[in-house]
Design goal:
The longest helix has 17 residues. A hairpin with a 7-residue loop joins strand 12 and strand 13. The chain is an alpha/beta fold. Helix content is 29%, strand content 18%. The protein is built from 21 helices and 27 strands. Helix 2 packs across helix 3 and helix 12 packs parallel to helix 16. The protein folds into 3 domains: 260 residues, Aconitase, domain 3 (2-Layer Sandwich), CATH 3.30.499.10; 161 residues, Aconitase, domain 3 (2-Layer Sandwich); 154 residues, Aconitase, domain 4, CATH 3.20.19. The strands form 7 sheets. It has a 7-stranded mixed beta sheet, with helices on one face. About 2% of the residues have low confidence.
């Protein structure tokens, strides 16, 4: 039986000649990187555990999340990373370089068949060149730096075939949002996805990057494109050596195959609040905007900038609208300068920043305010991610056209005179400090019961992301004692959770808990409060790893309907057997027990 693309890559980086879904293996990592905000925690983990660097030539820092160091804590964290890099011979792609995952491709470090881990949750962007990229928490990255490999559960594979001819004017971002419309945030949760089709073969590298980036928002482990000739040539040129592309075997076995007709795809936007809540551009056309952003790891490429320059040439941004443009890398920035795009952007009234993540990391080019409506080329519009306002996600062409019009529109519908504000004809868009250490919470070796009892917090909600659990404005915090007070600070209806939660409580949620970024704090905040465990129908892939590695108990269940659980009930959970018992009515339910690896790490008190 043949291997899928992810199985082939993982097998090539392990001691196994063949692997299968569900198998847990050690995987060697060709590239191990940490960003600016996560890097300081990686350094802390290494120092606290007396670990050294396995191979400094494969180890990197990338300062992209807040390259301006506009926040004092970010500046301190960057300094910590630079000092550690000097002492250990680690290369730093500093504030002048751009987004780390793009740099890995630009520098020839990631290419077809290679493996990479980084603290960036959009590391699956490397699937654009047929590489396996995985975003992970700071403990995982520290382990990768120290050992050169990580344990990994081989994911099941899904094949998506896009049939038919791509409609004229349909951008890669439109393709990604159409896929989100079809699969939502969790239909593909935990899968490795491969995309095929005649239209797919014709996609440029920049277009593949856009689609691969938004695999994170679909919940996938990775989204892989089989390399075409153009991508293979690019990777070989950047690596300075011939790259032999890696493909799935002809007889590879996929758990699911989906055939979609790309000719039926239309221009879409993601509505404020969630990338998978989408609508056609025409259905929201004329929605008034206050600001616009073009950039991010999803749409900060040169081809994106060329589209924007073509629309903005000899035009002005609408009065009262702010447009921010940020290329993904300095290489792209310089190319835009040489092509005259920067002059076009400035003449149109846009603010242009140095290369970086920008809109996703609110510190680089600022945030939007409460009541502000933004249209963005980013990949996430979770509440609070880019500020307090509402954020629509769209293609670069739609964002640029909307910035000129003053409302959401397509490029072909840009008015001769932009809307003036206000305009009645245009729609308007829409604590108690925690002091419980991990040891006090029972999270230390030798005293770890496999069965616990506690009061239930039942949050009946899917797709609770890491920004809702632990908002990015607190990411510079490294002391676990300080984290608990911010738990669910950005989850509507549960902002007072940290004040009301008690040591030994149990949190129950629904599907795809912990989706979003790679932040370890979204796990550690529960440890800080002394929460026993979290039960969910499914977990975000990175969140699941972070929880297991931190020895924080998470349990997956199919349905709790039989238990008839209510908020405030008391239940008993056995991690080893997976048995859940209601102490109010005596009813029991079988959930998934800890895996062998999870139980071993739990009893050991953590990955280290």
């Amino acid at each position: 039986m043949g291997l899928t693309l992810i199985e082939r890559i993982l097998a090539n980086h392990s001691k196994h000649s063949t692997v299968k879904p569900g198998q847990i293996i050690d995987v060697a990592m060709d590239v191990r990187a940490a960003r600016d905000f996560g890097g300081a925690n990686v350094v802390k983990n290494l120092k606290d555990n007396g670990l050294s660097i396995a191979d400094s030539t494969k180890t990197f820092f990338t300062f992209d999340c807040n390259p301006t160091g506009s926040d004092q804590k970010y500046a301190v964290n960057q300094h910590i990373c630079r000092q550690y890099a000097r002492d250990n011979g680690i290369k730093v792609y500093d504030i002048d370089k751009g987004i780390g995952t793009h740099i890995l491709m630009h520098e020839g470090l990631a290419f077809s068949g290679s493996t990479a881990v980084t603290t960036d949750s959009h590391a699956n962007i490397l699937g654009a060149v047929g590489a396996f990229g995985q975003g992970m928490g700071d403990q995982d990255i520290a382990a990768a730096w120290a050992y050169g490999k990580l344990w990994f559960k081989v994911p099941a594979s899904v094949k998506i075939v896009l049939k038919g001819k791509r409609p004229e004017g349909l951008s890669a971002k439109d393709i990604a949002i159409n896929l989100l419309e079809r699969f939502g945030a969790n239909d593909l949760l935990g899968y490795s996805v491969e995309i095929y089709g005649d239209s797919v073969d014709d996609l440029t590298l920049d277009e593949r990057i856009t689609i691969a980036s938004m695999g994170t928002e679909m919940g996938v482990i990775t989204l892989l494109f089989p390399p075409n000739q153009q991508v293979t040539y690019y990777c070989s040129e950047k690596a300075g050596k011939p790259i032999i592309p890696v493909f799935a075997d002809a007889d590879a076995q996929y758990e699911k195959t989906f055939e979609l007709t790309i000719s039926e795809f239309v221009k879409r936007v993601s509505l404020p609040g969630a990338p998978h809540h989408t609508a056609t551009v025409s259905s929201v056309e004329n929605t008034r905007i206050d600001s616009a952003f073009i950039g991010s790891c999803t749409n900060g490429r040169y081809e994106d900038m060329a589209v924007v320059a073509n629309i903005l040439k000899n035009r002005k941004v609408a009065p009262g609208v702010v447009l921010k443009i940020v290329p993904a890398t300095d290489e792209i920035w310089q190319r835009c300068l040489n092509q005259g795009f920067m002059e076009i952007f400035k003449n149109a009234g846009a603010m242009v920043s140095n290369a970086g993540c920008a809109g996703c990391a609110a510190g680089q080019v600022g945030q939007n305010g409460a009541g502000e409506v933004t249209i963005s080329t980013g990949n996430r519009n979770f509440p609070g991610k880019q500020g307090k306002g509402d954020v629509y996600l769209a293609s670069p062409a739609v964002v640029a056209a909307s910035a000129v019009a003053g409302y959401i529109t397509n490029p072909e519908n840009i008015p001769d005179v932009p809307v003036a504000y206000p305009s009645p004809s245009v729609k308007t868009g829409a604590s108690k400090p925690a002091s419980v250490s991990s040891a006090e919470a029972g999270q230390h070796p030798g005293e770890k019961p496999v069965e616990v009892e506690g009061r239930v917090w039942y949050i009946r909600q899917d797709n609770i992301d890491t920004d809702m659990i632990f908002h990015n404005r607190y990411l510079a915090i490294t002391d676990i004692k300080e984290m608990g007070q911010y738990t669910f600070d950005n989850l509507s209806g549960y902002q007072d959770f940290a004040k009301k939660a008690e040591k030994g409580d149990i949190v129950i949620v629904q599907k795809n808990f912990g989706s979003g970024s790679s932040r370890q704090q979204a796990v550690d905040c529960f440890i800080s409060l002394g929460i026993h465990c979290v039960l969910a129908e499914s977990f975000g892939a990175i969140y699941e790893r972070n929880a297991i590695n931190a020895a924080f108990p998470i349990i997956t269940y199919e349905s709790l309907e039989e238990l008839e659980i209510k908020e405030g009930d008391k239940i008993r959970v056995n991690y080893e057997t997976g048995m859940i018992t209601s102490l109010n009515n005596g009813k029991t339910l079988q959930a998934d027990p800890f895996s062998e690896v999870q139980l071993e790490i739990f009893k050991r008190g953590g990955l280290f």
